[in-house]
Amino acid sequence: MGWPEYEALWKYDLLTEPLLSSELGRLAGAKSYQGTDCVTFQPCPNPEESSQDRYAVLDWTLRNGTWQFRAVLDGHGGHETVDYTLNALPAFVQGGLEKLINSEKTLSVDDVSQLLVDAISSVDDKITKDVLELFPDVTSFTDLSDDAIRAIINDKDLGGKNATVIARCMRGTTVLVSLLDPGRSNLWVASLGDCQAALGVHQPDGSWETLLLSSFHNGKNASEKELFSRDHPGEAECVIDDRVLGALAVTRAIGDHLFKLPVPYTERIFMNAEDGFRFSRNIQDFLWRNRTPPYVSNHADIQHIGLNGKNAILVMCSDGFLDLYAHSHMELAALADYWIQLLVATRARRSKDGTNMALCLLRDGLGGEDIDMVSRSMTVEMDSRWMDDTTILVHEVTGT
After folding, report:
1. Cβ contacts of residue 92 below 8 Å, gap of 6+?
2. Does the predicted model carry a pTM greater than 0.90?
3. Closest CA to 213 of 201, 225, 228, 227
4. Distance of alpha carbon 120 from alpha carbon 115, whole angstroms
5. To the nearest whole percent, how much of the chain has pLDDT over 70?
6. Closest Cα to residue 297, out of 255, 242, 341?
7. In the chain, what is the straight-line distance between the N-terminal and C-terminal CA atoms, in Å?
């Protein structure tokens, strides 16, 4: 479980088959939609520790055929921002696609790539717009007392519109999106944060080539650190201990406006909200480093792959799935290839008995055939979470 043996004193139930597999499928909400197998797993029974991961599996029939949209969202600090993004982002993408298609312009790879970048940033920009409508700039609340500010933002008795606006600023989510065109020949993946996407492509010689289609937008990434040095010259502590301002692991996200707006918004607005922050660190310990915001970006990276009629398997996951393999010390590329080869071996079973391939990956990460290890991960008696939220989508793409 990751703790020294002298600290690992919690009880757990040792499950045996077939109960172990059925219970794992139930806890993980194993489902299949339109060729996509899905699981989302947080075994801690405490309602306050419920999963902040979300996913979407949507097919849109538009003028030129059916587009397939898939998304994994990894929320942090609370549920408000990830829930908003889950509802808003598909509409931004679908609306943008419809506009492009109806324009009669020939649809290019770059058009769709830019659409995804704009859709993701638009979700975050709307969160910013909503709070700036309440407080357009620092001067708009400089002369307001804390009681006056609290009366504006803590309005749950009046429907909670303003409270919701503030909460979306105080929480955050990463985003991973895939979009497949009607001809099954073009795949786009947009990543913002540290969710991961791996693609296995079936080659003419029968082998499978594995490609990584996502980015690691966090404080450990040297490229991200270079961007901070460029955008915030002279601020040596804008990334410290591999965290933004010494606090946030991801460098790109929707929400997290503590890192995007000037300090007074945090000190006067956010810290007067009834629900408060849910940071493991004391806000005042790092807030002073916020000098030239924004520090967290809403600009997604996009990768496009031409499938050219080949069969493919796409794995999309939140970073909790990677944590399950921390003991293996495998590099991400090797780990992605391991997943694809495991799924290739599983495909034959799926056609016979409907095996959920996302559930197979989750089972492998939890311990595979080691029923003791899997049982521990599922049933240990703790009130706080012992593993990160873990969501996996496996999307099979059949070539034309």
Report:
1. 118, 119, 120, 122, 123
2. yes
3. 201
4. 9
5. 97
6. 255
7. 45
